Amino acid sequence: MSILPLVIIPDPILRQKSKLVERVDDDLRKFADNMLETMYDAPGVGLAAIQVGEARRMLVIDVAGKDDEPNPQVFINPSIVKSSDTPNLYEEGCLSIPDIYAEVERPAEVTVEYIDLTGKQQLIEADGMLATVLQHEIDHLDGTLFIDHLSKLKREMVIRKFKKLSKQREPKI
């Protein structure tokens, strides 16, 4: 397994819509292992393939608490098929937008259809943090970032900050 480089805003790849995964095979399972290792190393609780530069509809999650046994989950071609009308506020952050946190309102419960690593179709009903993380990561697969759920002013402040930082990281000639 290896740690993959994270894509950071304002990289335009984060705005791409990810393509459906056609086949579950050993290469995809190895990629899932690398994504999980990258997520744990960051550390984070979720990671979409687009965040490591791969425009595939795939994400990994582990919302187990620090004192709990790890519970890695892999979702291939995930899709929200049902959302509750009840809203829920969670403070969100993102590995592709380091050190920025904000409260985001999302549906409190979702039902997600996906394919697992054996290639079988699955359905999961999620609430609480799992529901929030699933929605956050599925947003990534559609080119949406959590800052898109903030006011225009807050979103533009974050984007300006990262554009300035990316210019500072550019090599000088």
Automatic annotation (TrEMBL):
<feature type="binding site">
    <location>
        <position position="136"/>
    </location>
    <ligand>
        <name>Fe cation</name>
    </ligand>
</feature>
<dbReference type="Pfam" id="PF01327">
    <property type="entry name" value="Pep_deformylase"/>
</dbReference>
<keyword id="KW-0479">Metal-binding</keyword>
<keyword id="KW-0648">Protein biosynthesis</keyword>
<feature type="active site">
    <location>
        <position position="137"/>
    </location>
</feature>
<comment type="similarity">
    <text>Belongs to the polypeptide deformylase family.</text>
</comment>
<dbReference type="GO" id="GO:0042586">
    <property type="term" value="F:peptide deformylase activity"/>
</dbReference>
<feature type="binding site">
    <location>
        <position position="140"/>
    </location>
    <ligand>
        <name>Fe cation</name>
    </ligand>
</feature>
<keyword id="KW-0378">Hydrolase</keyword>
<feature type="binding site">
    <location>
        <position position="94"/>
    </location>
    <ligand>
        <name>Fe cation</name>
    </ligand>
</feature>
<protein>
    <recommendedName>
        <fullName>Peptide deformylase</fullName>
        <ecNumber>3.5.1.88</ecNumber>
    </recommendedName>
</protein>
<comment type="function">
    <text>Removes the formyl group from the N-terminal Met of newly synthesized proteins. Requires at least a dipeptide for an efficient rate of reaction. N-terminal L-methionine is a prerequisite for activity but the enzyme has broad specificity at other positions.</text>
</comment>
<dbReference type="InterPro" id="IPR036821">
    <property type="entry name" value="Peptide_deformylase_sf"/>
</dbReference>
<dbReference type="InterPro" id="IPR023635">
    <property type="entry name" value="Peptide_deformylase"/>
</dbReference>
<keyword id="KW-0408">Iron</keyword>
